[in-house]
Amino acid sequence: MALSPEEVAELARLARIELTREELEHLAPQLDVILESVAHVADVAADDIPPTSHALPLTNVFREDVVVPSLPLEDVLAGAPASDLDRFRVPRILGDA
Amino acid sequence: MSDLLTSTAAELAAMIASGETSSVEVTQTHLDRITAVDGEIHAFLHVDGERALAGAAAVDAKIKSGQQVGPLAGVPLALKDVLTYTGAPTTCGSRILQGWHPPYNATVTQRLLDADLVILGKTNMDEFAMGSSTENSAYGPTRNPWDTDRIPGGSGGGSAAALAAFEAPLAIGTDTGGSIRQPAAVTGTVGVKPTYGGTSRYGLVALASSLDQPGPCARTVLDAALLHEVIAGHDPRDSTSIDSPVPAVVEAARSGGIAGMRIGVVTELGGEGYAAGVQQRFDESVALLASLGAEIVEVSCPHFRYALPAYYLILPSEASSNLAKFDAMRFGLRVDDDGTLSAEQVMAATREAGFGAEVKRRIIIGTYALSSGYYDAYYGQAQKVRTLISRDFDAAFAAVDVLVSPTTPTTAFKLGERIDDPMAMYMNDLCTIPSNLAGNASASFPIGLDDGLPVGLQVMAPPLADDRLYRVGAALERSLQATWGGPLLNQISPLEVAR
């Protein structure tokens, strides 16, 4: 299927990773080899086989609706790159770059 | 080497409980060992000796005052750096989490502390548990104590190497595709992946949520079982945690009786592509199990050969979603935030700077497999294959009590040998992956050496029959140690000790 560096760049954009040109050229052939290998799942006739998303038969799990203390605000914000007024401080999210 | 370093965890616990030694003495001896050899091995990313000794002193005081303590009280342990432990960094081997301190303890961590174990530090791993060699750690590789030019396996190479280098008698790993069992195999140690849902994933930084499972790493089968009992059991904070009694693993490890047990050798996991020496040790071990009264049959699991491609679609798909949380907003690294760039640009620059090559590869493969137009052919088809693999297991376990195979196709390879060849690296997981896809219990036990390097045998048991792993492991250990004249690790060359 031969992924081009441009196609890898588009996937990286979707994944929000700003790959360098050098990385794109290095990764594209490696990703090709991986995709070619994993494509062998198509060799199995499985049209009538139900998919498994999880090893266990899962049912929804409920708990009692009781109030328990949250993590201390100070501890939660301690690991943040930036915080202000008891909130996470983030770069601007609106407007053109 | 001090006897306190070579003793088993069970022996240490008994000596600490009786007052023959103290947890402080045992802990200090291991901290000294880490100082002496970890410059060479690099099993640990973080060690906090002061805190470990304070914990040890508290256990000693508890024992002295006659309080009831658990069966591993006072024994030091190495914790894989993917499980949160407050007051210490959790990095997952990644630059994106460098210096991050978690605000809460993982359930596994909390159970270790509640059972009075002493945490020495956090162990090295492939970044976000992606890899089979620990070479993908952003902080440099771990070396195999059997041959320091070789890999210790991965992703939990740090935990396995800490055991084999006698830096810790116990360790915790996590297993998504073999990250406990493959390092155990290549370091001559014991590693167990419990039944999915048998141990809690709360506080385990997720790689692939439907596959990840924490488990015990040890030098003996009994030690692994004792640790298994400490960490296992239902946790309301993990909605996939199984609400049923923990299998009687310690009892099974003490018994080791396998007379009449039906053991299936998986046809598809052996032969071509397997190193001759690995296959030879495996065949000898199967013969040994037969001589101990087990009934050996050959079992075919035809879909296992599609396990690797299915896994390398399911895992990256789940990982690409799980790792989206590393967005430079709430924790970890943030780069290029100079006030001119948007959140999205900062996010993309941070993920570029913070993730290593393998993490990027897998996120992009996952993004591709989940994208519209490819979803059915890749992720959807892989999920169907997952069903077929589970059915193979169901059919096999209707005929036999456990399945066995080599744990890995080869012994430890050299550092750097496969780092830029992803498919060659992925082949390490050939035998271990099916049990992650199906969620059944699985373990690796040491069965000897090939050209001076350890070989492991994998045992696979039905879900919630984890005790059978320990029964087979104990039987092998007892007979093999009688032949070897002691533990396999007695045959390791002494490491050079830093002064």
UniProtKB/TrEMBL annotation, chain B:
InterPro entries: Amidase (IPR000120), Amidase_CS (IPR020556), Amidase_dom (IPR023631), AS_sf (IPR036928), GatA (IPR004412). GO terms for biological process: translation. It is an enzyme of class 6 (ligase). It catalyses: L-glutamyl-tRNA(Gln) + L-glutamine + ATP + H2O = L-glutaminyl-tRNA(Gln) + L-glutamate + ADP + phosphate + H(+). GO terms for molecular function: ATP binding; glutaminyl-tRNA synthase (glutamine-hydrolyzing) activity; transferase activity. It comes from the Bacteria. Its EC number is 6.3.5.7. Residues 25-469 form the Amidase domain. Heterotrimer of A, B and C subunits. This is Glutamyl-tRNA(Gln) amidotransferase subunit A. It comes from uncultured Propionibacteriaceae bacterium.
